[in-house]
Design goal:
Structural class: alpha/beta
Shape: globular
Order of helices and strands: HEHEHEHEHEHEHEHEHH
Enzyme class: isomerase
EC number: 5.1.3.9
Number of helices: 10
Strand order of the largest sheet: 1-2-3-4-5-6-7-8
CATH architecture of one domain: Alpha-Beta Barrel
Distance between the termini: 57 Å
Family: Belongs to the NanE family.
CATH class of one domain: Alpha Beta
Catalytic activity: an N-acyl-D-glucosamine 6-phosphate = an N-acyl-D-mannosamine 6-phosphate
Radius of gyration: 17 Å
Helix content: 40-55%
Mean pLDDT: 97
Strand content: 15-25%
GO biological process, one term: carbohydrate metabolic process
């Protein structure tokens, strides 16, 4: 993949919506075919890209004509989003255009640094790397380590920032002011207004998952509202 190819992928995501199509283990929709169908529906609705978890799910969307952000959640430790170089290479092998991985400063299970992981991945694969960060310091370190995209995915899930009820707009603005890499806002973006606010705060693109692709959670929101009104 050439530098022009990289720029083309980023260009397709610029100012757009990435839809995260994931289901938790044990759920009715936890099937690669189902997630592929959800991804196709999202693209029909205007998604500029999709984000999928798991090797089989990534392979199942090989026919989609939008950039695919792939990851592999594995392990029971703090670092479980594409936690090792081996995981990152497997995600790239499955066909992801962008490999998303834990972009925090926490120790990785294989003992490699984030910079070593990114460098090792690029030795074998021409892919973009998205660092899922939890703080401004994470984002600064991830940019220095060579990440192409900085995500706010882990804001509120590490000890460095509180868990907000909506998107962490403050963090988006902080990263935009301190870093040069494009930012993908992700995490607790539950309404179109949230998505617009994230973009206005400095996000290059916005990633939405639960509010679009997780029926159990969406149903619980409506159920709670109906019961409260009664």
């Amino acid at each position: 993949m050439t530098a022009a190819d990289f720029e083309k992928i980023l260009g397709r995501l610029a100012g757009g919506l990435v839809v995260s199509c994931q289901a938790y283990p044990g759920e009715a929709m936890r099937d690669p075919r189902t997630m592929a169908q959800v991804a196709h529906a999202a693209v029909v609705g205007g998604a500029a890209g999709v984000r999928l978890q798991g090797i089989a799910d990534i392979r199942a969307v090989a026919d989609l004509d939008v950039p695919v952000v792939g990851l592999w959640k594995d392990g029971g430790g703090d670092v479980f989003i594409t936690p090792t170089l081996e995981h990152a290479r497997a995600v790239a092998d499955a066909g992801a255009d962008i490999v998303a991985l834990d972009g925090t400063r926490r120790a990785r299970p294989d003992g490699l640094t984030l910079a070593e992981t990114i460098a090792g991945l690029r030795e074998t694969h021409d892919v973009l790397v998205m660092a899922d960060c939890g703080s401004l310091d994470d984002a600064i370190a991830a940019e220095a380590a060579g990440a192409d995209i900085l995500g706010t995915t882990l804001s509120g899930y590490t000890s460095e920032r509180p868990k907000s009820t909506g998107p962490d707009l403050e963090l988006i603005a902080q990263i935009a002011a301190a870093c040069t890499r494009p930012i993908v806002a992700e995490g607790r973006i539950h309404t179109p207004a949230h998505a617009a606010a994230a973009r206005a705060a400095g996000a290059f693109a916005v990633c939405v998952g639960t509010a679009i692709t997780h029926p159990a959670t969406i149903t619980s929101w409506f159920d709670a509202a109906v019961r409260a009104a009664g």
